[in-house]
């Protein structure tokens, strides 16, 4: 199942517009904060689909029943671009465990590359809800590699993928290589993927915009 937040009109559009705006992108702190805000809204929408149990809360004047999350999810992100999104998710799921994966493109030519996973740190995810975040889903191959790498830590009860922008090619790839029970949460679906596997109009390189150009 795919949830595309750009299909409805809300303040979320402002955050996404600022992420894309090449003038606003000149401020790395603002870019990181907008990635956080995008993932906070996605976290809120996703939270409506989690399990809850009613708990009695004592106030200074009495008691009231409130539905609260039954279990906190595990939040996984792809280094380094995913860190601001991870923080946004943590702002809402503030008691969640975290997992971190280093995955990157190793180019042989401008258009040909392989995905390498080098670093992985994760808690046990068996029977838990797993949320994997990455700002951009271009080809989808990085996400599939990360998903498979995380499965060595257990079989999650449910998997959600959270991303700001995706290309149609990535969504087709995920449908072919991930279980159909995986749910995808997106800020927008863009129209084009270049020969170099960059999303158009996209927003550029999220990692470089957030943390500086890498050598």
Overall, the morphology is: globular
- List the uncertain runs: none
Strand tally is 12
Give the structural class: alpha/beta
Oligomeric status? single chain
Distance between the termini: 38 Å
Give the SSE string: EHHEEEHEEEEHEHEEEH
Features:
215 residues; alpha/beta; Rossmann fold; 8-stranded mixed sheet; two-stranded antiparallel sheet; 6 helices; 12 strands
Helix and strand topology:
Blueprint: E1 2-4, H1 12-20, H2 28-47, E2 52-59, E3 62-69, E4 74-79, H3 83-92, E5 97-107, E6 113-121, E7 129-133, E8 136-137, H4 141-150, E9 158-166, H5 168-177, E10 183-189, E11 192-193, E12 199-200, H6 206-211
Parallel strand pairs: 1-10, 4-5, 4-7, 7-9, 8-9, 9-10
Antiparallel strand pairs: 2-3, 5-6, 11-12
Explained architecture:
This protein is α/β, with parallel strands linked by helices and about 220 residues long. It has a single domain, classed as Rossmann fold (3-Layer(aba) Sandwich). About 30% of the residues lie in helices and about 35% in strands. The chain has six helices and twelve strands. The strands form three sheets. Strands 1, 4, 5, 6, 7, 8, 9 and 10 form an eight-stranded mixed sheet that branches. It has a two-stranded antiparallel sheet with strand order 2-3. A two-stranded antiparallel sheet has the order 11-12. Helix 1 runs antiparallel to helix 2 (about 30-45) and helix 2 crosses helix 3. The longest helix has 20 residues, at about 30-45. The protein starts with a strand and ends with a helix.
